Amino acid sequence: xxxxxxxxxxxxxxxAEVLAGEVRQFGTEAWMAHPSALPGNSAIALISxxxxxxxxxxxxxxxTPHLKRCEYLxxxxxxxxxxxxxxxxxxxxxxxxxxxxxxxxxxxxxxxRIHIPIITTPAVIFHxxxxxxxxxxxxxxxxxxxxxxxxxxxxxxxxxxxxxxxSGSARFWNLVARVENQDPxxxxxxxxxxxxxxxxxxxxxxxxxxxxxxxxxxxxTALIEDLIADFTANPGNDASLVESxxxxxxxxAHDWREAWLLHGHRPEGLPHYRGVIRTARSRLHPNRRALTxxxxxxxxxxxxxxxxxxxxxxxxAEVDPESxxxx
Length: 327
Fold this sequence. Notes:
Helices cover 31% and strands 21% of the residues. By secondary structure, the protein is α+β, with helices and mostly antiparallel strands.
């Protein structure tokens, strides 16, 4: 999700020692390798699709057995009062890094990631855009995942963060607006401490309906128009190709709306929807970086594919949603 600045510190503080104690109960078998096989990167699923050990963005999100073994982690997560999506403990081994990248798929268009450092050292640095910060244990941060970002751990100690994905309610974004232009030190001084309360039971709100079986035409148009505005603003893009891609994407939006008006979520419409997607893919320039986004330099082909084409139909769209609704 795009933010007004690379990093924003939120006005919360947590007991990192208690959190670290809960992290240390997990053996090596609980840590999943990074889905892209990044060396030195692993995670424990706390809220996931179906409550299992997976990295999926699909399906109803549920607490995992790992989270149910903890007391303070659920209290921390519930303290935001938000509907939570995929959430994990993320470990960066000593001497490892998260390589430079941008989060540009459908999930990240409307979700922000909350970082709460649990085990860390001052040497661990998070880079985002042109800025770099050390997130200290017990602090609370969000960052702009639409900018290029990376994390470096040059120390001899592993780093562990609690990361929580959420779209955020109006309450959450009004809070962000109040602190986004503050000096982070001032925000930390005003932060509300969330203590560990032994025996306290909390209820977590988790995503049940993250997307539709068939993307709604209004959402499709909004995603596309945002992307058109981005690559149109890049002065380095070829003008004729900008015009061609604008037409291609708006053609897709119009044809998708037509198909939706005919078929909605009915399974008999799936061949029509798939045909619209195939036609759009066939019109993409073979050079994946023929056009790039003005905001972060990512190739438009990849953004369009991840944000729209791959997300337009759910993987299980063969199922009639009236008999088995999906998230």
